[in-house]
Amino acid sequence: MTTSTLSTVAVIGAGTMGHGIAHVCAVAGLTTRLYDVRRELVDAGLAKIAANLDVGVQRGKLTPEQRSAALEHLRGESELAAAVAGADLVIEAVPEKLELKRSLFQDVADIAGPAAILASNTSSLSLSVLAATLPHPERVIGTHFFNPVHVMRLLEIVVTPSTSAETLAAVQRFGALVGKDCIVVKDSPGFATSRLGLVIGLEAIRMLEEGVASAEDIDKAMCLGYGFPMGPLRLTDLVGLDVRLSIAEYLCEHLREGAHFRPPELLRRMVAEGKLGKKSGQGFYTW
Q1: What is the CATH number of domain 193-280?
Q2: The model's pTM
Q3: Which one of 119, 181, 188, 208 counts the least CB within 10 Å of its CB?
Q4: Strand pairing partners for 140?
Q5: Is the four-CA dihedral 29, 34, 40, 45 of positive or negative sign?
Q6: What is the pLDDT of residues 44-53, one digit of tens each?
Q7: CATH 3.40.50.720 domain locations along the chain
Q8: For the segment 189-218, what is each residue's pLDDT rounded down to a tens digit?
């Protein structure tokens, strides 16, 4: 694939991250296909995109014509082959489980052309492991977006030793096209953002667990004292406590200094109780 032929994107997974990625692709004028395993999940993702586009128009971020054009560039699919066939770029945004992502990429590789770029939105898992069993591993790359995708400007691009310069250049151009500022990091557990952000988030949970301060005051300390746009506990609610727990367990196991990432018991208990943050209505805050 060359950068000039990047025109069709398939986004696999219509959840929080997937529908956000599809949103920015469609707004950028790319032919965008949003896939999930059940039609109701696809429809829910499409409805959230439409609602966010409406908010964009209300706030003057988009014109009504831009909203209409974005929706024209977007379609939902519940058949993987229909979503992936002919796509120049396939971005998976399924749950953070290594075997699920490996199996999905194998299925995608059997359908997509050999030049199609295979990108993962993983926030911590090894891209090298994902690429190891695939044909043409030089086309595998990480595209780690941030929630909410249509608002957050960062795109963390993760390269493996096998990722080709052409693949990296194409994804950097894609990032610019969808309005993101890109950083490039080497494949390493947690990359740059998850590794740094999680340390602060886990320590904030430990402080809350120990009764050092309330969730509100811990977050206010980081916002007003360090200029964070959002406190670490509120951010954990937004990301999902289950997602943070999964990443912490992975980094604890795979990093040499993994003890820094040992999950606090409070985090484990809240996840077990179904207190997952914004998506469940209750986390460190009530949503």
Answers
A1: 1.10.1040.10
A2: 0.89
A3: 181
A4: 118
A5: negative
A6: 999 999 999 9
A7: 3-186
A8: 999 999 999 999 999 999 999 999 999 999
